[in-house]
Each structure stands twice: as C-alpha cells, then as structure tokens.
Amino acid sequence: MTLLYSETEEFLRDSVRRLFADRCPPGAVAAAYDGAADFSGLWKSLAGDLGVAGLIVPESLGGAGASAREAAVVLEEIGRAVAPVPFLSSAVLATTALLEAGDTALLPALASGERTAALAVPLTSGPPTSGPPTSGPARHAAAVRHGDGGLTGRVTSVAGAAEADVLVVPVAGDDGLELRTVARDAPGLTVTPVLALDMTRPLADVEFAGTPSARVGPGEDAVARALLAGAALLASEQVGLARWCLETTLAYVKERRQFGRQIGSYQAIKHRLADLWLEVGQATAAARYAADTIARGDEDAEIAAAVAQAYCSDVAVHAAEECVQLHGGIGMTWEHPAHLYLKRAKADQLALGTPYHHRARLGDLVDLPAS
Amino acid sequence: MTLLYSETEEFLRDSVRRLFADRCPPGAVAAAYDGAADFSGLWKSLAGDLGVAGLIVPESLGGAGASAREAAVVLEEIGRAVAPVPFLSSAVLATTALLEAGDTALLPALASGERTAALAVPLTSGPPTSGPPTSGPARHAAAVRHGDGGLTGRVTSVAGAAEADVLVVPVAGDDGLELRTVARDAPGLTVTPVLALDMTRPLADVEFAGTPSARVGPGEDAVARALLAGAALLASEQVGLARWCLETTLAYVKERRQFGRQIGSYQAIKHRLADLWLEVGQATAAARYAADTIARGDEDAEIAAAVAQAYCSDVAVHAAEECVQLHGGIGMTWEHPAHLYLKRAKADQLALGTPYHHRARLGDLVDLPAS
Amino acid sequence: MSSDEQDIAAGLSARVRALLAEHDVADERAFLGARFDAGLAWVHFPEGHGGLGLPQVWQRQVEAELAEAGAPYPDPGRNPIGLGMAAPTIAAFGTEEQKRRFLRPLWTGEELWCQLFSEPGAGSDLAAVATRAVRDGDSWIVNGQKVWTSGAEKARLAILVARTDPDVPKHAGLTYFVCDMTAPGVEVRPLRQITGEAEFNEVFLTDVRLPDFYRLGEEGQGWRVATATLNNERVAIGGAPSARETGMIAKVARAWRDHPELREPAMHDELMRLWVEVEANRLTRVRLRQQLAAGQPGPEGSAMKLAFARLAQRISGFEIELRGEDGLRYDDWTMRQPDYVDMTGRGPGYRYLRAKGNSIEGGTSEILRNVIAERVLGLPPEHRVDKSIPWKDLPR
Amino acid sequence: MSSDEQDIAAGLSARVRALLAEHDVADERAFLGARFDAGLAWVHFPEGHGGLGLPQVWQRQVEAELAEAGAPYPDPGRNPIGLGMAAPTIAAFGTEEQKRRFLRPLWTGEELWCQLFSEPGAGSDLAAVATRAVRDGDSWIVNGQKVWTSGAEKARLAILVARTDPDVPKHAGLTYFVCDMTAPGVEVRPLRQITGEAEFNEVFLTDVRLPDFYRLGEEGQGWRVATATLNNERVAIGGAPSARETGMIAKVARAWRDHPELREPAMHDELMRLWVEVEANRLTRVRLRQQLAAGQPGPEGSAMKLAFARLAQRISGFEIELRGEDGLRYDDWTMRQPDYVDMTGRGPGYRYLRAKGNSIEGGTSEILRNVIAERVLGLPPEHRVDKSIPWKDLPR
C-alpha cells in the first residue's frame, strides 16, 4: 500500500493537466453558466485521445486495465481545472456499475470514448451501508420500475445524463434491484437539464414513460460498488480543487498590497493559510488511501471512502471559501475564476453523500453507533 | 425588559467585588485543591454581612425581596473571582426549590445566612423539558425513596452538600415527586466529598440509609423551577468568568514581549481576541436576558435559559482556554490563576446540562425537533 | 421631559400639523420638497437646509407624527448613498452654496447619488486611491478607475475621492469631490458578480472635468472627509434588532419544519448551534439599542457586521447541505442589474453566494477585527510602512 | 541493494554477532558500553564515539538485529534530552575531547541530561535569554533563571544557552555550554503545573562556575548551535504513525462503546468528526513516512505537532462533556514529580489539562504556524524590530 504517486501516475497527470490548460481555461468553463458552451470536444479528447475513459476497464474489454488510483489522479486534475467533463459520471459511476453487473456489451465503447454513459441516480445518493445499519439505507431505493410496457419512473438530479449516449438505470424488479441500459434516444425517455449551482457538472431530471431497455445484470451490488467507488474517488477531485484554491490564494496574497505591505505578510492571513495547507495535506493522504483501497479491493474501502468524503468535502469548501475571501472584492466577481471553484466545491460536498451522511455511516462501520 | 444593569445592581456588584478582592485572592482559592482551605468565613460574610443569601427570598420570609437579576450580578462576580462559595447551590438551587414547594420554615434561616442548604441532585442535571419532549426527560428522576424507615438511596456529585447544614431532597413518593429536608447531621446520612476537576465548587456523594426527613411540599415543579433558575443564572457566572479571562489576557498580551514586540501586536492574536471579545459581549446579552425572564416569570424563560446555557458555557471554556494558551508557559503553571478559571469553566460547561443537552432541549421548545 | 423640551416637542408638532395642512401627502415629490423647506427633513441639519439645528433625537418624533398621517418618506433603499452618506458629509463639510445646490434634490429623490471610493488597487486600503485629479484653472480634470459602485447607472451625482498630490504621504494627498455622473468621460460598466447578477459597476473616468465648486472640503483634506462619510456608513450597517428567528435562520428553520424528510439527525446540533448564535446576536442588538437609548453607546456596534457576516455565511452554507437536491439547484444565472437586493430572497444557492460578499463589502471582516482589536481593545496597531513616505514612492 | 550496500549490511551483522557473542545482554550497562565501543550505538556518529561514520539509515538494521537477540537498549523516555538533543549537538559541534568526555556515559545512561534553554522572559523567543555567562580566566561565571526543565532533579549535566555579549544584537551574543548540574550555585525547584504535578523545574543559577572546556562551539555561536539542537527536537516530535484509533481518540471511542447510557445523539456527529480527523492525520503520517523512505521528505512533518495539539485538546475537551459526572471528577491533585508522563493515561480530567500544554511546549502552535507560513508557504516574514539593535537596548 502506498499513498504516494507512481511515475506512471505523474505522467498521466501531466498529460491531463496540459490538455485542460489548452482546452478549458477558466474563461471557457464559465461559459457553462450562460448555456453557451459545448464541451463534448474536450471530453472526446480526454476520453479518446488520452484514453482515460477506460482507465478502470480491463484490457480484455478494451480498457487500460489500470485502477482507481489512476482514475483518482485524473480526478485531481479535473478538480484543479473545474473541468466540465463527465469522467466521474461515465468513467467511474456508470463504468463501475456495468463492470460489477457483468456487462461486456457496452463497456468497450465506453472505454474507447466512443460512447458516454450515466448512472441514473440522484447525484446526492451516498453509498448504502453494508451490514446491519443504524443510519442510512442498506439498499439503494430504485425510483424506476420495469413492466410489460417498458420502464416507468423518474430520477432527478442525474449527473451527466444530458451528455450521455446511454443511461445505466437501477430498476426495481421482482428479484430485487437490476441494472438496465437505455439509449439516450429511446422512445418515452425525457431528459430535462437542470439549472444548477454548479454548472460544470451538469445535472438533468430523467423521466421514463414506457421506455424500452436492456437488462445487464443484478443491480444491488453494482449500484453499491459504483456509489462507493464514486465517493472514494470524488475525494481526489476535492483535493485537486482545494489545492488550486490554496495555490492561487498564496500567489495572490504574496502579490496584493494593502497599507503598503503584501497582505500575505499579515499574521492572521498567514495562520489561516498555514491551517488550510495542513488540511489540504491531510486531505491528500485521506483521498489517496481511499483510492488505493478501491484499487486493491481492500476490505477497508468502505471506511476509507467514508473518511475521505467526510474530510475532503469540507476541506474543498473551506479552501474555496478562503480563496474568495482572501481575494477580497475581486474574488466576488464573475471575471475571476474563484467562483467556479466555490460552486463546484459546494456541489461536491453534497455529491454522493454529505459529510454528515458519511460520518453517520462511518459510525456504523467502526462500531460507534449514534445511539 | 432591560438587559442593562441598574444602579442598584452595580452597587451590589461593587460590594461583592470588594469582598472577594479582600478575602479570596487567587492564591487563597488555589488552596482548595490541596484540601487545606476553609471558606466558611467568606461565605458567612457574603451571605450574612452583604445579605446576598436572601436575594431572591421575599421580604416576608426575611429575604431581600430582590430578584434573579440581582442574583445574576452576584454570580458574575463569583465567576470573576472563581469564588468558592455555595451561592448557586444554596441561594439559588435549594432556595428556589423551597420557595416553589411552599417552605416557610427553613427559608428565613437561609435568607439570613444562618444556615446553608443544598439541593440533592447531581450537578450535571439539566432542567427537564416542559410539554411533550422528544429529547431529554420530562421529569426529574428521583434517586431517593421514602419509606417507613426513612429515606434510602444515593445521589452522586451534589454541589455544596458538604458545606450545607440542610439537604433539600427530591424524593419519589406515591403521588409523584416530593421535596423533603434532611439535617446534615441526621442519622443514616453519609456525605462523601469528591475529588473534583473543579474544587472551587465542591461536590459530594450523598447516601441515605434510613434517614429521617421532613416533608416540605410537592417536588415536581420545585425541582424543575430550581434547575431552570440554576441554568439561567449559571450563565452569568460563566460571563463573569469569561470576562476575567479576556481582561487578564488583554493585559498580558499588551505587556509581554517576544521578538521585541508586545505579543498583542501580532495580528493573529489580535483577531482571536477580537472574536473572543465579540463572544463575551453576546454572552452577556444572552445571560442578562435569561436572568431577566426568570425575574419577571416570563414565559420565554425556558428558551432564554437554554440559549444562555448553550451559548455561555462554550464561551467561558473558550475564554479560559485562550487565557491559558496566550499566557504561554506561565498559563500552564499552578502559580498563575488561569488554571482555576479553566477548571471552573470546564466544570460549569457540564453543570446543569451540557450545551449539547440545552441545544437538544431548545429544539423541542422552538419546534425544531431532532427528527 | 424638561419644560424646554416640552416647548420643542410642541413646536415640532405644530410644524408637522402646518405641513400636513398645507400640502397634499399624495403628491410625493412636492410633499417631500415642502417637508424639506419646513425644516423637517433632518431636524439636526442647519435651518434653510432641511433642518432646524436641533439635536438628532427629535427626528424620531417627526417621523412618528408624519408616519401616522400617512405622509410619504424617502425610501432609503432608493437613494442609500445620497441619504446615508452624501447628505451628512455635505452638511458637515459643504459651503452654504453647496448645501443649497445639493441637499434639496437629494432629499426629494430628484437626484440619486452613488459612491466613487474603491478602486481595483484600493479596497481595504482606501487611502491608496490612484485616481488623479489635476487642477486646470477653475476646474479639475479627473482620470482613473473606480469599482464596486452600486446604483452608478441611475445616479446623477457621486461622492468621489481622488489623489491631488502624489508627492506627499498617501493620506495627505487626497481631495474629496462631488462628481457629475452625466459629465463627458464618465463611463459606467456593470460588474457581474458570482451570483450572476451585476449589483455593482465599474466606473471609468477619462478626462472628466469638474468645476472647483464640486470640491467638498479643502484640497488635501479628502481623507478626513471620507472618514466622516465612512463612519456614517458603519453606523448604518450596525443595524437594528429584529424579531426572533428572522432573516437567514428563518429560511433554514422553515425548511427543517416543512420537510421532515430532510432531517438528518446528525445535522440537528449544528442547526441549533446556529439558532442559538443568531438569538444571542439578536439579544446583543437589543442590548445595544438600550445602551444607546440610555446614552451609553457600547462598542459592540462595530462588531455586529462581523457577526452578521459570519452567521449569514455559516447558515447559508448549512442550508445547502440540508436541502439536498434543492441545494444543488439555482434559480437564474442571467446577468442583470437588480432593482433591489434581498440577501435572504431567492433560492438557497443565491443566498449562499451572496452571503460571501457580507465579509468583504463595507469593510472586510479582517479589517473589522483589526478595528476592534486596536480601537476597542487597545491592542498595539499593525506595523505600517506606508504612512510616512510620499505616495509615489510606495511599492505597488 | 548494491554490492557496496551488501558489504555494509554483512559487516554490520558480523559486528552485531561479535558483540552478542562477547557480552552478556543481561548486564544492561556493561552491554550498552560494549555496544558503544563497537560503534553500534549510533552508526552515523564518528568512529571512536559510538559510531562508524555510516549513513543513518543503517541504524535500523542494527536495532532490528539487536532487538531480535533481546539485547537491552537505552530507554528513550529515561534520557530524552541526552539522547535526542545533547548527543547530536555534541557530535556536530564538540571537540574530540568533549565527545570523549560526554558521549559514552550519556549513551549508557550513567549521566542523564536536561535542557536549560527557556527562561521566564524567553519562551517562544529563545534568542532573548538573559542568563549571563561572564568569562573569568579559564572559566565562566553563570547567573540567571531557567524554566521548563524536565528531569533537572535527576540530571547530571545540562545543555545551556547563555548570553555572553549584551552589546551586540540578540542572536549574536549567545554561547552554548554544557552545565554541570552538581556545581555549587545550581538550585532546582519543582514547578507545579495545572495538572497538580510538577513535570518540570525552575533552575536558578547563581555564580555557577563552568570550565571553558564546557563551552560547546565558539563564543557568540550559541544561536547556531541551539538551532541545530531544536531541529533535532522537532524531528523527534514529528512522531511515527500509529495504528488506527489509538491515543486520545481510543479513550473516547471506548467510553462511547462501553457506556451506551452516555450517548447523547447530538454528540455523535462531533465524535465522528474527531475520529475522521484523527484518521486523516494518521494517514498523513503514514504518507510522510513513505515519502521519507522514498527520499522525498515532505514539509508536512512540521505541521504534525500542530495537528496533534489541536486534536488532543479537542478530543479531551469532548471526552469530559461526554463522560458527564465522571468528567467532573479528578484522580489526584497531589503535587509530585512523575517518573513518566503518559498524556493519555490517568483520567479524563488529567488528559484535558495536560493536553493544554501540547500547544505550548516545544514550540507554540502560533510559532509553528509562523514557521509553516514563512518556510513552507513562502509568505513574507513578520516585521522584526529586534534583529538589528544591541540586546541591551531592546525594550523588555
């Protein structure tokens, strides 16, 4: 077990960072809020040219046969650039669910970046608790049913649904949850984009009204594994985001002068940034460990993911809030990118379970029940 | 309704402050920890000569006929001096319970300072919740029973029991809780002093084994009112304590130099003290309001007491912790009085309900139930 | 009340009655003009300029009697800079002619005002303004860039601080002006904020010519005048106590009550912590108001904005977490200039983002903590390198 | 492992085997002496002084092989100042003769050491020490007061910083000495702490005569030598990663598990917050250790003490609230000098009070934040007025 970055991981990081520097500078990202942006080309480059869409897919299915550790590095860079790409929704959530459910039909196309998928669950869904829970649901409650006439039901706030070619849908069947796929252009499917606090991870409400679908396999474990991997890896996005905020703020306070001094020479600012730096360092360790336990299939993965989410979510929000505050007025403007990070950090805090949810869940996992 | 201090209150404050300055400087208070101190003379002077023991007792019963507002001012000064006097236990808790239960026999002696009483409940007891509660007990659970052979049972961590001449005991009777008095030298009564974190409010475990007692009246409301008044007024002790810590720390950081500068010129210290000052100011308003609602018998008293305890408990601990930290090494020594305030503040945080307890209770009172 | 005071009270009532008898309360502008002429606009101002030279406490009686009669009053939300900042500054530092020119149309709302103080390089450090005003005969030529100007698009006039002497230390080289917002060379550009809206503007001043009549106070006295203006702002921000559970906390409490399905038990303690702090803060405002009424103004006033910002930010952040999917949504990203800013209005996302400005606008929380530490607690001031050397030699 | 490295490894193993073959592990002092003479005490020290001049990483192999054989080792808790601070300083700055005189009995534990650095007026600002050392022929006469000296009552020797020249700026006028704790004029007084115990002492030095042989480093070089000593302390405090849920959090977790009656639901979220932070901190230590092993030491090491202090204080404060009546009790207020300090031992009250020292001793949290901000984050240093003027002219 190592919490460091391998050379391969650093190499992967460099390519992703270069791509984002070229193709999605903050000004371009901000256009997402005015509905004027199309980032599908960026995603094609990332997914296809750099091959990151298939990172966690085995080579036998056309993937890179890498692991959650490498996916975590990509997410760090996504967080760093607040990049509007459906990596988490397609290459982590949907892909993990399909892998777990035994799919072989769709994964090669996802891995190659030809097609993009989304797991039809609300982005706020946290991983269900394994074992007898005292808090939080033990199972994912499916909002969609399968009948003779096709799928019916409604799932709100689905990340990446509007950009997806295929929806991967947890469906309540007679033998429990099953996983089905639905083509984006299937009849009876309505996908309505949502005006969101964070427009860099687009959300949509999805309605099924007699929609044809194809069965992949059993869904219970598939959804649980997907949400667990998603929560574990989202922590790395939060770390990347927090690190950008810290570095950008440090650079600014070294340069900005008020009262004839760099504002970074004021001790109150220095102490706050020292504390924040400590937090970001600890978040890095927690996120790396979460990714590593997923990669190794370690039995500690549930605890590691809960710790990482509970810790990193708040660190990212803290870093983004300090970034806005310490930039003063300029941090409140649309022109400065800080707001993109603030919105993403705040939305990430809710994504895949709030820190409150993860702490409650962790209480069950480590035998510290709430009551 | 006024949250200011009247001239009478300020006059009372001056007398109490002068007495403590003369008779219980910090060095003398510290002796309480080595079991070498007798503060009964101090209490006699305060209770009798200054007449504060009977502040909330009507003139018809030999008291001053003043109110909880004046008692709160005395408690501010007690907190300021971490004075080891049984004012809260005798002149507030026991006295309020006796008043509510209709006593006329004992109160004149308590009011004159001739005798001292203690309410036999653990110091950690919070006020019970009125109305249908979702958190916390609606009734005080009595640990003592009354039978043919006298009282039996055990009450732990009773404040002021060792210094009291009379114990005021909530007893489980056939018709619910009743209030009985027991002489300190009654047969079958064992009072065992406890080694406590805060030795300036001595605690003792009390055991009844066939102990004779006298009935005062019904106990349910008496105990509830006493705990409510106690919680409301303890907030003023916490304010006085916090204010001493703030003022002492301010004086120190203006004088102490490190690296050629007063440490109070370092911005991180300045900002922390500005925040603390704000907290102490808000605590003052909350504590004054709690005392005022008790004094006026206002129906808002339960909410006001919960707010004051939830807020002031943590402010006092914060102030005492900052006082130790900002004094550096000297604040860690026995010789400096800061530790007396830290211990009292921490014990006060638990006394009459923790802030967690009061917040939970407040949720019921303001229609914000926990679940 | 002394007999002198009884005389004043009676005299004021008579004036109010006369005003009401002679003027139609339905014609707002005309009525406000008449109220000004009757000396009832601001009784503590000089006679002839809307006042009677009385102590300010008498204003309350006038307001009460006029309100009872249903008379119109100037909406403070419509011309806040004019009424709150420009008027007292003009009254204190203006010449007779300036008072005559500016105060009446300001009062009636015919002329709206804005503020040209902050600059990109001069935020907390207002005395660092770089906008230059150079004398040219009987005029001044102004060049520079201002920012965070609310209402600039509607304002006829502005209060302006500019540098007139770069060769002296920075506080000594400033002069205070009234700026004509319709003058050639004044360009107003909306400044979009993180909420999507443009509450504020940038104002670019290019060779703007102002007559010397528009100078308020002496040349080089600008810092003193501006400080007086800002003290008026701080008093305004201190704010009045409100009822229990209002503002931001009311939104969260309502969500908790109306949506039992949102209640995560782990969030309850934090909810109650916030409720308690808001209530303690409210009681502090009540107490401050009582101190003020008793003639013992407490220094806590300067801390109320600090506390307000911290609470607004914590509560609005908590609300998003509580609301779950609703917290992830936003109502409108359209860029527009709002007529009215309600920081607790709109959705939770807006509240969260808008609250971020509370600790920046009108004095950052960092500056306020400095002010409390130094002026209230008497702690030693920050080391300053910029007070004694000429402005032009300061590193920037 | 390269072939050179294989040779070193084999050579060390042979030495260890020879040591074990020739000396009885049951006779602790004699064995430790023999281990020193064999160069196996600290392999990175020079030959003849307990070392072999090898890189420090080889020490681990020696420790492992000796531990396997059940050999005695010097208890670091018994002579922490000697082993952790005095020894590396003597190795770096001592003369041949000084190394010969001091290192062997230090290693075997025959001579225990203590530290005479802090003074009532020189805490965080160590360079402000006022204890004077005046040369008198071939000796020095020392006068002053030191504080926070643990183990002074048992120590034979001490490391001491004293002022030898008050006419130069404060960092330049210091000299580093070894102090003989048995010399006339050395008086040790126990210093009682808020826990009731006296872990530390005050040490009064009155006309204490030290031979010039006891001077470590040049006259006036004391600050440089002391800085090297303190860096060794900081490395020691950084600490190794431990297993999950150990130390202070284990106490609280156990109380929660063992006492369901104490579980106030409102406290659960805070309990888990603390658990999460402790675990994140533990993982950070694991990661730091891995970075160190990979030859990429991370700067987070300097922050671990800061994080440790904050967590220890928060957790121990929480534990008191959780324990209720047990939190109100204390185990023992008797003044005594403890043999061994276990900060998570004894009761919750002791833990709470003792933890308050964590953010003061060995560098306050305020100083550590300065260090991180300036040395790690590259933020501008604090304004210093004391670096350039003679020590005697500084305000005190």
Automatic annotation (TrEMBL), chains A, B:
Residues 221-359 form the Acyl-CoA dehydrogenase/oxidase C-terminal domain. The keyword Oxidoreductase applies. Keywords: FAD, Flavoprotein, Oxidoreductase. Its cofactor is FAD. The keyword Oxidoreductase applies. GO terms for molecular function: acyl-CoA dehydrogenase activity; flavin adenine dinucleotide binding. Belongs to the acyl-CoA dehydrogenase family. This is Acyl-CoA dehydrogenase. It comes from Bailinhaonella thermotolerans.
UniProtKB/TrEMBL annotation, chains C, D:
Keywords: FAD, Flavoprotein, Oxidoreductase. Coiled coil: none annotated. Its cofactor is FAD. One of its GO terms (molecular function) is oxidoreductase activity, acting on the CH-CH group of donors. It holds the Pfam family Acyl-CoA_dh_1. Residues 220-377 form the Acyl-CoA dehydrogenase/oxidase C-terminal domain. InterPro entries: Acyl-CoA_Oxase/DH_mid-dom, Acyl-CoA_Oxase/DH_mid-dom_sf, AcylCo_DH-like_C, AcylCo_DH/oxidase_C, AcylCoA_DH/ox_N, AcylCoA_DH/ox_N_sf, AcylCoA_DH/oxidase_NM_dom_sf, Mycobact_Acyl-CoA_DH. Gene3D superfamilies: Acyl-CoA dehydrogenase/oxidase, N-terminal domain (1.10.540.10), Butyryl-CoA Dehydrogenase, subunit A, domain 2 (2.40.110.10), Butyryl-CoA Dehydrogenase, subunit A, domain 3 (1.20.140.10). The keyword Oxidoreductase applies. GO terms for cellular component: plasma membrane. Residues 16-110 form the Acyl-CoA dehydrogenase/oxidase N-terminal domain. It comes from the Bacteria. SUPFAM superfamilies: Acyl-CoA dehydrogenase C-terminal domain-like, Acyl-CoA dehydrogenase NM domain-like. Residues 114-208 form the Acyl-CoA oxidase/dehydrogenase middle domain. Belongs to the acyl-CoA dehydrogenase family. This is Acyl-CoA dehydrogenase. It comes from Bailinhaonella thermotolerans.
